[in-house]
Amino acid sequence: MESLQAIELFAGLKPDGQPMVERLPVKALPDNTLQLVRSPAFVKGLAGGDVIKADTDKREFEIVKHSGNLSVRVYCKTDTSALADQLNGPVAKLGGELDFETPRMLIYTIHVSCGFSAIEEVFNPINGDNAMWLYGNVYDPTDGVTPLNWWQDILKPD
User: Fold this and answer.
1) What pTM did the predictor assign?
2) Where are the alpha helices (DSSP H) in 64-144?
3) Which of 141, 111, 119 is nearest to 42 (CA)?
4) Residue 143, Ramachandran bin (φ over 0: left; ψ between -120 and 50: alpha; else beta)
5) Helix/strand/coil for 128
6) Does domain 69-155 have CATH number 3.30.450?
7) How far apart are CA 91 and CA 109, in angstroms?
8) What 8-state DSSP symbol labels residue 29?
9) Pick from 43, 100, 102: nearest CA to 78
10) In sequence order, which residues have a C-beta less than 8 Å from that of residue 45 and are 6 or more positions away?
11) 115: left (phi over 0), alpha (psi -120 to 50) or beta
């Protein structure tokens, strides 16, 4: 039986150089792996539904299986309420959902089969002085620009 629990994973360094962790809800699976319940706000390389092996002492992880979901992070200088109202409908039409909302951040999970173009059509208009968005699990966490390409196998025709 799957049980819900929370784990902490390394999410980067704070401005003062101290490590930052993010607490994430997961389902414990029978094979001792963990499935993310939602996309993280700060941990790079993961999205809701991904299955991982976690070293909770070191707060590190290894991806066992990608869910096919993309993590989309929206950061805002002002309250996100109006932005959420603007985005939630179009994201739902793509089959995605809002995983997490704070006054300055929105985290969405959307399946890659929707297509990058369709997703970017929804989110690109919000980029500006007040808000910006980015993928949380598309680019290499080390350099931030090299595509991870994990979706290639998922999108291959059968």
Assistant:
1) 0.93
2) 81-93, 116-123
3) 141
4) alpha
5) coil
6) no
7) 9
8) P
9) 102
10) 63, 136, 137, 141, 148
11) left
pLDDT averaged per 10 residues in sequence order, the chain, 158 residues: 85 93 96 97 97 93 97 95 95 97 97 97 93 96 93 88
Helix 116-123 vs helix 81-93: crossing angle, to nearest 10: 160
The whole-angstrom separation of Cα 57 and Cα 60 is 8
Using alpha carbons, list the distances in angstroms from residue 37 to 47, 91, 137, 145. 9, 18, 15, 26
Written as one letter, the residue type at 106 is L
SS3 (DSSP) at 21: strand
Domain range list for the chain? 3-65, 69-155
